[in-house]
């Protein structure tokens, strides 16, 4: 049985979190002389002389409406990259614990594990880019605290079989982190609705992709109240700045505009796949549930360099195990995609 107390990092168990006088004070005051802010104002003429809400209540309430998840089950990070780091710092003892990663997958899990001195156990995806459940079961030991599953997966683009993730959730006594950065482009349902079913589930999402707000650095973790409370204790107090909170709140009103972009991206994805398949140097294009495609080619480096010469940057993934010869190409605007195809027409 999963029990959060069994996986908490030792020094977090009795952690006294940083607390400001304003956290303790509830309600509106007329004079704030507690936080050594500049009382005169800010050169920007907004309330930027004041620290932002550490628990980002307004943004969470709006996300709660959109996602159908109570605000107390939502953690906000400075990008989901921060949420990944906070998971390591909350649940993994440096030098002792380990995490299971399933490459090829998003690179930050390993970087974050390395920074936090957490051992990485790699269990490669299968040739079909699905989970090797037997391999994962063998790799799990008493110090395995986290398993990261990216679905839709970066860089392969496909979704991971839902039943396999459920099997992990039901059998693993640590946290299963399902990174849904690209979920808005997927035919698969989000795992968010399963939070009440699985106490060991953490779902990551972000405003950096479909929401078009990569510059604001706002990522979300959805999990049980207990897990979110721990993450809030461990995070830096003011991790989402006031400008990002205000702008995120404003942007989160624009659901229809975002849905329009998602639809257009999917149409463009289909078009791009059809056009790319006509090139001789394209060997295979993997089915994608994301806003990018993994394109296997006969000469990844040559194509990459040629595109760079023509001012087009794609991602060369050809040195990544199981992605040999592959380029990862983000779906652009219709015009950008035409430019890409026209440029490739002259590649020899
Ligand atoms: N998860 C995945 C799978 C990603 O591809 C990315 C960004 N490339 C992130 C998380 C991080 O997103 P952010 O920190 O911008 O929220």
UniProtKB/TrEMBL annotation:
Annotated keywords: Amino-acid biosynthesis, Aminotransferase, Histidine biosynthesis, Pyridoxal phosphate, Transferase
Cofactor(s) the protein requires to work: pyridoxal 5'-phosphate
Segments forming domain Aminotransferase class I/classII large: 45-339
Pathway: Lipid metabolism; Amino-acid biosynthesis; L-histidine biosynthesis; L-histidine from 5-phospho-alpha-D-ribose 1-diphosphate: step 7/9
In-chain residues carrying the UniProt-annotated modification N6-(pyridoxal phosphate)lysine: 209
HAMAP family given in the database record: HisC_aminotrans_2 (MF_01023)
Quaternary state and interactors: Homodimer.
The protein's name in its UniProt record: Histidinol-phosphate aminotransferase
Organism, scientific name: Mucilaginibacter aquatilis
Phylogenetic lineage: Bacteria, Pseudomonadati, Bacteroidota, Sphingobacteriia, Sphingobacteriales
